[in-house]
Amino acid sequence: MFCCATVIGGIAFILFFIGILAKKRKSSRLQARVNTLKDKANSWEDNEIEDFDPKNVLKETDFNIMTERLKNRIIIPNLEEPDNSPYGTPATYVNHVADHLVNAFDFSQVLNVLCQFKHFKTKIGDINLHFIHIVGSEEKRSTPIILLHGWPSTVWEFHKSIPKLVEQGYTVVAPSLPGHGFTDPPNVTGVSPSVMACAYHKLMHKLGYKRFVIHGGDWGAIIGSLLTYMYPESVIGLHNTMNHMNFGWRQILQSLIGAVLPSLVYTTEQEKKFIHPMFKFGERMYRSFAYFHIQSVLPDSYGYGMVDSPVGLIGWIGTTYAIASSGRDSTVNMMTNLRNGLKNFGLDNACANISLFWCVKSAQASMRIYYEFYWNDLELLRNFSIPNVPVAISNFPNEIIHLTKFASKTTFNNIKQYNYHKHGGHFAHIDNTDGVVGDLTSFIQKLK
After folding, report:
1. Cβ contacts of residue 392 below 8 Å, gap of 6+?
2. Where do the domains of the chain lie?
3. Exposure winner among 186, 308, 338, 341, fewest CB in 10 A?
4. pTM of this prediction exceeds 0.85
5. Number of C-alpha atoms within 13 angstroms, CB side, residue 324?
6. pLDDT tens figures, 267-296
């Protein structure tokens, strides 16, 4: 008996010791990665900031080429689809968006809205970076805000939020992701989210903002979190609308208990509806994130078709706005869900982003962020945590990812604000502008 206990205890001690060593090695690898990134960023040249006019890139002639191609497109046949439509974007949806672009969409209005903001460009590392920069009042200049969007989005996502923040006196900086809108595609490989985080940190310091608030959604949430992890001394607070985490003991414990006793784990109907039961959650993630896998391994293969074909662009990128803004009701068919999503996001907003991607020929380049992340930053995102910087998370019912506050603390140890909203989705700045701006400004007030 004593021998068995000794052997078991010895094995447990060895496993514990191996675990500590493995954790230390992993920590050393992550720190080495961060040091390499920061050293590279420190070596970047300090280039001038230049004024930028969106009209130099968004040209009526390019938009007209798109609409002419759509007029002469091969009409896609409406094949039979089951209610849940696992085959992808319905032909009905593609034709619906295409007809609106041709017959009803006002491209000049996009230009007018974007041109009300002050646009700039500067070279940071390998990125010819575009950004909007509006200086706020003297009173609130000490809390500048950088707004970070994701894929397949552009700074158009913030066109309603920026004026509301500026009206309240805040300084706003809104950069375009590489290959998204007005930031040029990098002419080198390896420009991953962590590299973009370094570039945005450099940009804010270049503008004179040594400390600032970060707001992010989608890739912007991940980039903002990485920036906060690498440069915590520069970040006053981090506000995300897409929650994300490491896969640590909290997630494992939550999954195991939640599968049997969901009432002990999920504190809101939102969480329970989205995450429970786990096998349904896994199936939904498997279907919903098919694009993530493709773009992580073969971004260019799909990208060529979207640069050359507006139908391809609508079918791959154009459907995302509706899906990510829809409640994805399993009792109705895919097209009904997409139409409901478009009601939330707005058909004109979808067409605005599609037009931006088309005119700057950037769809292929925009997809590479998935490849660069998967092969360069995956281990970093899986294992980092932010212990001290204040964090706020806004949860919207139609967001593509939901986590509990308990699970979120694996990554964010200092959560100061954790709000739920009754409506809104992945692109909350579009379909619940007041909600996301209200959360952001109330969070900033808590930081004072």
Report:
1. 237, 238, 239, 240, 415, 416, 417, 418, 419, 439, 440, 443, 446
2. 1-43, 52-446
3. 308
4. yes
5. 23
6. 666 666 666 555 565 666 666 678 888 899
